[in-house]
Design goal:
Distance between the termini: 51 Å
Number of domains: 1
Structural class: alpha+beta
Radius of gyration: 19 Å
Shape: elongated
Length: about 60
């Protein structure tokens, strides 16, 4: 890791690749960025199933019409 900075409104980590070229990637893709508070508190758990959330989203769309 060479640098950690905000770039285009998002934190990026800069590093040199195997060819000694400077590269960057969003810090959220790495372990160097801050932990998302929701992810930390939920510890990967959710009281909702994906299929139920998709059905709820569809029902809300139907109400908008």
């Amino acid at each position: 890791m060479v640098n950690y900075t905000l770039c285009w409104g998002e934190a990026h980590g800069y590093f040199y690749n195997d060819y000694n070229r400077l590269c960057s990637m969003p810090a959220g893709w790495t372990s160097v960025g801050p932990v998302d508070p929701f992810v930390e508190i939920s510890a990967g758990r959710s009281p909702f199933r994906r299929v139920d959330l998709l059905e709820l989203s569809s029902m809300i769309d139907d109400l908008k019409v």
